From TrEMBL:
This is histidine kinase. GO terms for molecular function: ATP binding; phosphorelay sensor kinase activity. SUPFAM superfamilies: ATPase domain of HSP90 chaperone/DNA topoisomerase II/histidine kinase, Homodimeric domain of signal transducing histidine kinase. It is found in: Cell membrane. It is a multi-pass membrane protein. The chain crosses the membrane at residues 143-162. The lineage of its organism: Bacteria, Bacillati, Actinomycetota, Actinomycetes, Micromonosporales. It comes from Micromonospora rosaria. Coiled coil: none annotated. Residues 367-427 are annotated as: Disordered. Residues 167-219 form the HAMP domain. It catalyses: ATP + protein L-histidine = ADP + protein N-phospho-L-histidine. Its EC number is 2.7.13.3.
Length: 427
């Protein structure tokens, strides 16, 4: 933008100076030629009294004296055909002057000035002088060079002024762009200092106001999520008391463990809602341990519903760049979909294995499969919230992986959750 503004200023300056300097240069040329012609005419007219009254010898001496002074050829044509002074042919201009008409004519070597002298008793005499082309343009080249130099200086000054203005504009716009990118990268404390023209200062103020509103809205949303999550603690406490009152110690332990897991998830949700900056870049957990633990948890429900569970778990540890609570939520979402969207006694398979630099989790069932468009936040075809697959997808993408939903070899649904390796905090 700065270069374009400078180019625009240069183009405008050149056009304006051209429109001003070209006519001025032509005027200088014409004025110089006219002044030379006026001087030559005045010299020739100074001979009129002598040519009109004196004898030829005096006229000759006077002409020679004038030629020596003006260094310009002067000729006097007498009525009897005598030519005094510089030898010159009788040009058409001289013939017109011999009829009584004085004039100035152009020719190849310059201008000729002819003056008719009608005071002689023997007829009309003619005084002719020539203004050479060098005299007509004397000093014009230097004047043109001065004008050209003045034009170049003015263009350079205009470029300097335009560059200074463009620098202030571009600097203000660059600051706006930098702050907007910082806001896009979740640096919500970024602010821009209003600078530049009034319009840019207004945009800067609007951007700062927008950043403030984003902070307020995000803070309110986090507090609402945290409050909502905190409200779950009361029913969890009641559920824990109910679990502890069960007579069967095994059932009590199992339900208490489930309540503990749910309470950890709620605690993690509260903590995540109150965090201002994500820390997924430095998060790490053992996918083998997490998947094995969650499959064991869901296996109890699978046994109750007559589902056969096949677990193919690679030997751990298999570190991935996902926090443990997020990976637990993702695995629970995938396994929960199997129970929610397939009939009882539908077998399913869970596989976890290294896949290059990633870890691949596969959950496949022999149910009716998933229709297109399932992986979309809030979209559900089974009456649920539609957030399960979205939770899994966000966990995978946070680690640099991906989520794929398709159809397995047996015709049921197959979900591939590819998890990326742990990343250093500087990544």
């Amino acid at each position: 933008m700065r270069g374009r503004l400078a180019l625009l200023a240069a183009a405008v300056g050149v056009l304006v100076l051209t429109a001003f300097l070209v006519p001025l240069a032509l005027l200088v040329r014409d004025v110089t030629a006219d002044r030379a012609t006026v001087r030559a005419t005045a010299d020739a007219q100074s001979l009129v009294p002598v040519v009109g009254t004196a004898d030829p010898e005096i006229v000759r001496l006077t002409v020679e004296q004038l030629v020596a002074q003006s260094r310009r050829p002067v000729s006097v044509f007498l009525p009897d055909g005598t030519i005094l002074g510089a030898a010159a042919p009788r040009t058409p201009a001289v013939e017109l002057a011999a009829r009584g008409q004085s004039l100035t004519a152009e020719f190849d070597d310059g201008r000729e000035v002819v003056i008719a002298v009608q005071r002689r008793a023997d007829g009309i005499g003619v005084i002719r002088t020539v203004v050479p082309a060098a005299e007509l343009t004397h000093g014009v080249t230097r004047a043109w060079l001065l004008l050209a130099g003045l034009g170049i200086v003015l263009v350079l000054v205009g470029l300097a002024v335009a560059d200074r203005l463009a620098r202030s504009l571009v600097g203000a716009i660059t600051d706006l762009s930098t702050v907007s990118h910082r806001l896009a990268n979740a640096e919500l404390d970024a602010r821009v200092t209003p600078a530049g023209p009034a319009e840019l200062r207004e945009v800067a103020g609007a951007l700062n106001h927008l950043a403030g509103r984003i902070q307020v809205l995000l803070r309110e949303e986090r507090e609402q999520v945290a409050d909502l999550s905190h409200r779950l603690r009361t029913p969890l406490t009641a559920l824990r008391l109910e679990a502890e009152s069960l007579r069967d110690p095994a059932d009590a332990a199992r339900v208490t463990a489930a309540v503990d897991g749910l309470e950890r998830a709620v605690t993690g949700l509260i903590r995540q809602a109150r965090w201002r900056t994500p820390t997924a870049g430095a998060a790490v957990c053992d996918a083998a341990a997490i998947v094995g633990d969650r499959v064991a948890f869901w296996s109890v429900l699978a046994e109750d519903t007559g589902r056969a569970v096949t677990l193919d778990l690679a030997e751990g540890p298999l570190p991935v760049g996902v926090p443990a609570d997020e990976l637990e939520a993702a695995v629970d979402a995938l396994l929960g979909n199997v129970f929610a969207h397939t009939p009882d006694e539908t077998p399913f398979t869970v596989r976890l294995a290294p896949d290059g630099g990633h870890v691949l989790l596969t959950v496949a069932d022999e149910g009716p499969g998933m229709p297109p468009g399932t992986v979309r936040r809030g979209a559900s075809h089974g009456g649920s919230t539609g957030l399960g697959l979205d939770i899994a997808q966000r966990a995978a993408e946070a680690s640099g992986g991906s989520l794929e939903v398709g159809t397995g070899p047996e015709g049921g649904a197959r979900v591939l959750l590819r998890l990326g390796p742990p990343r250093s905090p500087n990544d």
